[in-house]
């Protein structure tokens, strides 16, 4: 069965960037079709089960007003619906998980509820049509314009074709780019081309960051050991030169120094979650694996409400870097191997991992598929750190924002800024055999030119597929930056729709650009940073 729909703006991909893009277009009065291939909207925050990675100043500034509403909505959801202790409930900066990676670690389904509530008025009015679970499979293109995108239902295969004058690619891996013939790059660019200090001399398009399949666990009485995974023997013995030991082990490189460092692991350590400060300036927070990405600290809740803390496993040892999963005919095989690696990590933790008391394994570790909303217990979707990226009118390069290059000058300030972001350039081990690349960066801006493909007129990136390099993707890929990128793309599409112009015309006309930036500022975008230091 095939249906046809029309919209003012089509947003393909319902992750953070896609949801933000849809909201921006809807606020402007546009009719929007939003699609998502997984059961939950929210992407890396929900279906990929990654607690938010944010800057040290996130509680004060550095994000859009709508992203702040999302964060505060999550906290308010806990206050209204969860049995928090009085001390936790009273905290303005409530961190339900007390995790070290972020000032707001929480269970994925809470973010789903808040994101759905943000879309609910538009679903009720009919301004928004949400197609779920659908993925893009084909596109109709006329010259430099995308006319329509065909989507297939994940389970039934039923197809829907959506036509729209503006199309946004908010998929996790830039799926629309090859379907529409939009020029794009993958992997490492050549340093000779970009001038980046951390880039190789020759381009390496198949050299991409590791993909990870995350999962949630708690620790309770009883034996919850899973069946031995098929490739467990392979993963238990797997080593690579730069790791400092077996992949399945508590010893792994420190991303910032590259020296092998020993992590600790102690379920339910009995720490005070209200004393945790999630600040990336203080370090990555991953030395204690249990509290690193803990998403529910039982001591934040009334006694007996939670039998255990819940922690989210997104640790070095689940990084799958044997092969890329973009533009690879064997992508499905490698994604399944990534899932098997995650199962193997859990099985190793349950059976063979060394304990401080001299024993081995924690059979009380329990896989919490109910927390991640999946049948097999793992996250619904793989965590893609890297996407196909458009060849853009402007490409952000390392020397635009590297603290080592820019020093006291701070990041390059773009005349066409449509938002700001901050994170270290954080690249995980890659499929070309590279170790971490972790570089201090300056608080940076998002240039409009990075949202404009070099040729295609009406397609915009709305996530990690904007005009960055392999290097700068490492700091543009995090939650609030992806949201800002998507929200800016949605606002740009709506602004262009009103005037019947291609988005590039906004960047080319100083008066239109100033008007558009004024509109963004009025909606709560921050286009420039205050005077803050790099880290």
Automatic annotation (TrEMBL):
What InterPro entries does UniProt report for this protein, alphabetically?
FAD/NAD-bd_sf (IPR036188), NadB (IPR005288)
SUPFAM superfamilies named in the record: FAD/NAD(P)-binding domain (SSF51905)
Entry's Gene3D superfamilies?
A: FAD/NAD(P)-binding domain (3.50.50.60)
A GO molecular function term, named singly, is:
L-aspartate oxidase activity
Example GO biological process term?
NAD+ biosynthetic process
Superkingdom, taxonomy of origin: Bacteria
Supply the name of the protein: FAD dependent oxidoreductase
Source species of the chain:
Glycomyces sambucus
């Amino acid at each position: 069965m095939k249906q046809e729909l029309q919209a003012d703006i089509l947003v393909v991909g319902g992750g953070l960037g896609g949801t933000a893009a849809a909201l921006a277009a809807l606020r402007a009065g546009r009719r929007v079709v939003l699609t998502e291939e997984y059961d939950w909207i929210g992407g890396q925050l929900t279906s990929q089960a990654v607690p938010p990675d944010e800057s040290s100043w996130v509680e004060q500034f550095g994000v859009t007003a709508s992203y702040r509403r999302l964060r505060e909505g999550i906290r308010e959801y806990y206050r209204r619906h969860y049995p928090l202790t009085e001390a936790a409930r009273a905290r303005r900066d409530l961190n339900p998980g007390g995790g070290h990676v972020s000032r707001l670690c929480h269970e994925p389904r809470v973010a789903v509820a808040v994101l759905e509530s943000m879309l609910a008025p538009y679903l009720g009015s009919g301004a928004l049509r949400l197609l779920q679970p659908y993925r893009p499979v084909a596109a109709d293109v006329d010259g430099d314009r995308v006319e329509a995108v065909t989507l297939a239902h994940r389970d039934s295969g039923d197809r829907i074709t959506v036509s729209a004058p503006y199309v946004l690619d908010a998929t996790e891996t830039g799926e629309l780019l090859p379907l529409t013939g939009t020029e794009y790059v993958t992997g490492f660019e050549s340093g000779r081309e970009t001038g980046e200090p951390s880039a190789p001399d020759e381009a390496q398009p198949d050299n991409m960051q590791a993909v990870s399949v995350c999962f949630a666990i708690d620790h309770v009485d009883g034996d919850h050991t899973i069946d031995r995974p098929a490739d467990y023997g392979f993963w238990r013995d797997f080593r690579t030169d730069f790791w400092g030991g077996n992949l399945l082990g508590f010893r792994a490189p420190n991303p910032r120094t590259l020296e092998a460092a020993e992590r600790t692991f102690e379920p339910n350590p009995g720490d005070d979650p209200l004393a945790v400060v999630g600040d990336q300036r203080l370090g990555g927070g991953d030395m204690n694996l249990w509290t690193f990405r803990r998403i529910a600290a039982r001591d934040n809740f009334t006694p007996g409400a939670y039998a255990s803390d819940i922690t989210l496993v997104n640790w070095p040892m689940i990084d799958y870097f044997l092969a890329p999963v973009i533009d690879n005919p064997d992508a499905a095989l490698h994604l399944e191997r990534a899932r098997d690696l995650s199962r193997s990590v859990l099985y190793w933790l349950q059976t063979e991992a060394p304990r401080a008391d001299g024993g081995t394994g924690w059979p009380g570790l329990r896989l919490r598929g109910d927390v991640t909303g999946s049948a097999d217990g793992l996250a619904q979707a793989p965590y893609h750190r890297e996407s196909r990226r458009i060849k853009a009118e402007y490409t952000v390069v390392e020397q635009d924002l590297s603290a080592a290059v820019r020093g006291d000058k701070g990041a390059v300030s773009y005349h066409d800024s449509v938002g700001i972001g901050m994170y270290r350039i954080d690249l995980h081990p890659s499929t070309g055999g590279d170790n971490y690349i972790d570089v201090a960066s300056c608080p940076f801006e998002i240039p409009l030119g990075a949202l404009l493909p070099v040729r295609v007129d009406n397609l915009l990136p709305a996530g990690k597929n904007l005009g960055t390099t392999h290097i700068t993707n490492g700091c543009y890929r995090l939650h609030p930056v992806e949201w800002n990128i998507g929200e800016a793309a949605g606002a740009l599409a709506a602004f262009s729709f009103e005037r019947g112009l291609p988005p590039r015309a906004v960047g080319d006309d100083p008066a239109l650009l100033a008007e558009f930036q004024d509109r963004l500022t009025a909606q709560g975008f921050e286009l420039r940073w205050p005077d803050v230091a790099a880290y």
